[in-house]
Amino acid sequence: MSAGDTASTELVEHTRLFIGGHWENPAGTDVIEVVSPHDGHLVGRVPHASTEDVDRAVAAAREAFDHGPWPRMTVGERVEVMGRITKLMSARAREFAELITRQNGSPISWSLTNQVMGAIGHFAVTAQAAAAFPFEERKQGMRSPLVVRREPVGVVAAIVPWNVPQFTAASKLAPALAAGCTVVLKPSPETPLDAFLFAEIAAEAGLPEGVLSVLPADREVSEYLVGHAGVDKVAFTGSVGAGKRVMEVAARNLTRVTLELGGKSAAIVLPDAATDDVVRTVLTGSFLNNGQACVALTRVLLPSSRYEELAAAITEAVAALAVGDPLKEETQVGPLVSGRQQARNLDYIRIGKEEGATLLLGGGVPEGLEAGAYVEPTLFGDVTNTMRIAREEIFGPVVCLMPYDTEDEAVEIADDSDFGLSGAVITADVEHGLDIARRIRTGTFTVNGFSIDLTAPFGGYKNSGIGREFGVAGLTAYLEQKAIALPAA
User: Fold this and answer.
1) Which of 258, 224, 221 is CA-nearest to residue 238?
2) pLDDT score for 9
3) Residue 121 belongs to what domain range?
4) Is-catalytic flag, 260?
5) 459 falls within a domain
6) Whole-angstrom Cα distance, residue 220 to residue 107?
7) Exposure b/e, 199-213, CB count within 10 A at least 16 = b
8) 13, 190, 260, 469: which is the annotated catalytic residue?
């Protein structure tokens, strides 16, 4: 912890902000209180950054980019620092996981394997990609030799959500740092504590002065950061509505943007699919992180010829999920992040009933867990694609089972969405599944299962976003290209 901060199993409290690599007193007196979604108890308290703090952080980042050593280091030197970050994060992985779980209710096993190890994976994969990347190359042009350079885009505002806070932060920090950028990280008010822990690690790893700031704040201060003239690029993960606002504000300065937004992804179950494969895909792809995942498979398309059989198997499996305290190892579904999110889910469940969908399972608050922001794992059957529960992102453990008659109809239903982020097909014929994958307009897709690969481009079509993250694709999003013409021989 930084000097002046205290921590215990009951409360994590920070009194200062991490600005330009130093722990600084905030300009204002407002604070953010982090409340456990499991029982409502206070988990932590941090300063609420102000617009003045944003000015200080951007100025430090600007100075570090324009005159500091970080962009001028060799790639190998930057990768070395990233390697130290990876080792330090690994050593404190359990601490990271417990912080995240206490803030947003992710089951601890999922926090450790996906939230934290996934974040560590981003740094490892990006470092490997950067070490082999052609930042400068010579080629023959039409009339003369050329040098083509890939240079860091500059000062980056990285704005991350509460559902996978460390994972999404790493998906931006790792490529930005590898490219030579400086970063102002804006964590969500619901989950700022793990970002402060990362700041400690970055300082210990030897990240130079000015390269990183961490400013938790609300939407008003976030918008000020997005519109700041000193910011060269905004990397944002969040809702479609907020993403549109980010793009609108960033456009005033022609600031570059990467937007990773929402999803309403479909899993197409073909008639030849094995029941066990269907159930496994739904459990891992639909209810991950308590359903609070943009990539979640929230529409499951079942062939009419097997609808009753498969719906029964899925219902039985979902009913067996262990719901409860997210810090317990056996828990598979924990609370939603807040009472606000709980109310949103319960409202959509009401809408689904009113629309005529069949409630197969769940639909309320689990008995004995009324003190937290819990919603029972919920299945709706006989859902049509015109219903709001099939078209709008609910962001919770609410899944729609939808019958279809023909394969072409299934593809049409899957594509009939404002989103295009993820998807899956389950079939005994992998090559045929690949043919289906090629027909769906979505950024990531899995044949038989549910998988997100950190080395593959990640992002969405349509309202699911602009640009790609992860691996080489993510690295290039933080680079500008420069062409230098040399004299002809």
Assistant:
1) 258
2) 58
3) 6-261+464-484
4) yes
5) no
6) 31
7) bbbbbebebeebbbb
8) 260
